[in-house]
What we know:
By secondary structure, the protein is an all-alpha fold.
Amino acid sequence: MGIIKNEYDVEGYSPTDTYPDPSGKQISSNIPVYADETGAVPGESFTIGNSLYARIQRVATKFGVEPRGIERVPEDERTDKTLAKAGTMWLAANMVVSSFAIGVLAIPVFHLGFVDALLTILFINLLGITPVCFFSTFGPVFGLRQMVLSRFYFGWYGVKVIAIFNILACLGWSSVNVIVGAQLLNAVNSNVPGYGGIIIIAAATFLVTLFGYKIVHYYEFYSWIPCFIIFLIVLGEFAHSGAFVNLPMGVGRSETGSVLSFASSVFGFATGWTSYAADYTVYQPHTVSRVKTFAWTWAGLIFPLLFTETLGLAVATAMTFDPETGDPTNRYAIGYRKSHIGGLLAEVLFPPLGRFGQFCLVVLALSIIANNCPNIYSVSLSLQVLGRWTQAVPRFIWTFVGTLVYCAIAIPG
């Protein structure tokens, strides 16, 4: 009998090979004979023993907290067979006010026209999401987190540098996002201080990420729906207002510089998910189609990014001109200067909708939870990559530490 090779034996494996079976039949290698389980760590192993680590994990798992960190997921524990989750994860994370804010930047910060900013949003997002989709396909194949997979590219020590950059990015984006959410809450009620909004959003985000992979996916699977409905309301009310202005495209070197600068913001927001793409597919079976994983991830990213950023761009054009008075310092511009994104959205929603408009703005503020969940869940995994001692600290403790750090950054900001 010949030796049965597995699909990861790249030197000896051929997709057209056949292997003998005890029954005498030939088995095509197009269907993997078994999954390579090298290095996989069973879930029950985290709670075995009398060490402090094991005792903490036993208490945590009683409440449904995910004990696993960067350890490889064995095949029998990869029970997440819903491919749509690969899409809804990123659909919810980007159907948020933060991506709306990226589109707004084109007008007051980079001084672009509508068409050139729109084309930048379209083509740069198509480019930016490609690596996220590509690396998402590695989660089911190897059952490893993105930073662990990066050891193959950067080495055992080199990846620690990458992990540090990823930690800084996760904490930095979380701080920026939570500030935007706090601005929206302040626009609804000026008695809510900035630090109060930050603490509310950060605490809710921690509660979701505390329980780990399954709860994060469950929350993201549904949280995009109310946000999408409210963005449709924003679209309808703004279109009805007639405040949209088709700003002309600029020319010359200043236009080139503005387009490139805006493109860098759009690209950074879109491709920023790459460093933890595989974190959210590791519990899917290795038999999952890589093409389908790529496609679901692509769909989950491109739709909310294009929709929210284009909407933000359109609303921002109203800050430049009032069609009734010709006054460039209109209520939209005043609202933006007063409370930034929150003030701008308040001017779209409050006058026509009143109390319901305030409710819509609160929901959009809470959309930051979905935006920050990937950041805070994955920052704990990046911390565990730094060394043996950091891996010895349970994932959910690092999640708590990360939450405290980005709150400390955001509150003074």
